Amino acid sequence: MMVDTTVMAAFSLASPLSTLHLSNFRASSPLFSLRPSTSSSSSSFRRLLILSNNTFSNPCHVNSSFTHPFHSTSTFLMSTEDSFARSSSSSSSCSSSSSDDNHSSTIEDDDDDDDVVGAVLDKDDYDSSPPPLPDRWDVLGLGQAMVDFSGMVDDEFLMRLGLDKGTRKVVNHEERGRVLQAMDGCSYKAAAGGSLSNTLVALARLGGHSIGGPPLNVAMAGSIGGDPLGGFYRTKLRRANVNFLSAPVKDGTTGTVIVLTTSDAQRTMLAYQGTSSYINYDSSMESIISKTNILVVEGYLFEFPDTIKTIKKICQFARDSGALVAVTASDVTCIERHYDDFWEIMENYADIIFANSDEARAFCHFCSEESPISSTQYLSHFVPLVSVTDGPRGSYIGIKGEALYVPPSPCVPVDTCGAGDAYASGILYGLLRGASGLKGMGTLAARVAAVVVGQQGTRLRVQDASQLAQSFGFGVEGSVQADVGSDQISSL
């Protein structure tokens, strides 16, 4: 069954206090009870239309442009007390044999455009000369701001610390200090980490050129401490053309994730939340959201009860301000623990949901044998646009009870970590750059994901992003307006 010719709206950058943009879309689904809608004569009413030929018209992008004239060495050295020091030794692998050596830890920055070892990032480097801000934000991400430390270890190192290989564990400040102290003398990398930041950096790099429109304005809000790690996090995002807009929490401690990888490629992760679970909702946050086209909420924030309340307020204000709201599923266990909270946000506020096939099934309470087509179709009754990735098997885009299959982009896989984050950046890029068809938008996203899968590391590199953007060329409008019959649409 082809897409219903009466499908007119999946999203809207709507006028405040109006639910009209969803009522037309959802009225035709038996799974919805039609909510009262209000009419609006506001001249600011803008709508993203999904048309009968499976193309769409997108008003989501703005004409302001800016650059980030921020250049600073960001490789740094850190002791177990989170202070900066200069390296006095050459790096070595983190094995049990090095645990008794009296060496300083060397932390290498993981950026592809800055890999200097042994430099110090002074406080002045990241507090002075903030870049000018644009009038509006194309995308604002709301998520956990955590610095990732990643290094290679051996099995004996894990055993000595009593860590179960391949697990993820939440630790307190003392436990984190104990692990970092054990890593003293080892070489490891630091990054402004997190799933959401991967997506935002990839989007900013794709949209960093005037191809198909002015450079995209991308930002993140969350919580960092007023410590050196908080300054590092803000600096790293700035360097990637992503502004971190939230003020640091005085006397707060920036969250960290220690990723310990063994030779068999298994990763053991230790997460210290710090202040990352805290989201401050105030007039400053409202001002930022009122200037935002798409708000992306990271699912990991649902782990914290007080934060969930704040998320609801922020999503409501975003909708009232005319922004689209996107939610990332983040993790199956997180969905299982906070199932009702996720669904409250999805049903009442979300315009877009990003999930992998396991997460999509968890939302639907489907068994593991259930096809991702079914979960994509089911979720699209509740959320206007559903994006579901299924690893090397491809992906699906769901609208109004239907699932459009997107084949995977060919690549030689090297590291699959970060593939879903990259895919989400491609979907957002397609929306903001005016891709005219769902199939083309999905194909674009699959190509971005394939590039990240074909490299070591989770971040889309600057050079790759530039080449991808030029190849899309927009350009996309001509390539994606294919016949609906060739789009492999699955229907209930």
Find the count of extended strands (DSSP E, 2+ residues).
19
CATH class of the largest domain: Alpha Beta
Report the biggest beta sheet as strand number plus sense, adding barrel if it closes. 10 strands, mixed
| Secondary-structure class | alpha/beta
N-to-C CA distance: 8 Å
Notes on the structure:
By secondary structure, the protein is α/β, with parallel strands linked by helices. It has 2 domains: 297 residues, Ribokinase (UDP-N-acetylmuramoyl-L-alanine:D-glutamate ligase), CATH 3.40.1190.20; 121 residues, no CATH class. The protein is 32% helix and 19% strand. The strands form 3 sheets. A 10-stranded mixed sheet has the order 10-9-5-13-14-15-16-17-18-19, sandwiched between helices. It starts with 8 loop residues before the first strand and ends with a strand. The N terminus and C terminus are likely disordered. Pfam families: PfkB (PF00294).
Secondary structure layout:
Layout: E1 9-13, H1 20-26, E2 46-50, E3 56-57, E4 106-109, H2 123-127, E5 137-142, E6 146-152, H3 155-161, E7 168-170, H4 173-182, E8 187-193, H5 195-206, E9 218-221, H6 228-239, E10 242-244, E11 255-261, E12 267-272, H7 283-289, E13 292-298, H8 305-320, E14 324-328, H9 332-337, H10 339-348, E15 352-356, H11 357-364, H12 372-379, E16 385-389, E17 395-399, E18 402-406, H13 419-433, H14 438-453, H15 462-472, H16 476-480, E19 489-491
Parallel strand pairs: 4-8, 5-9, 5-13, 6-11, 7-12, 9-10, 13-14, 14-15, 15-16
Antiparallel strand pairs: 1-2, 2-3, 6-8, 11-12, 16-17, 17-18, 18-19
Helix pairs in contact: 5-13, 11-12, 13-14, 14-15
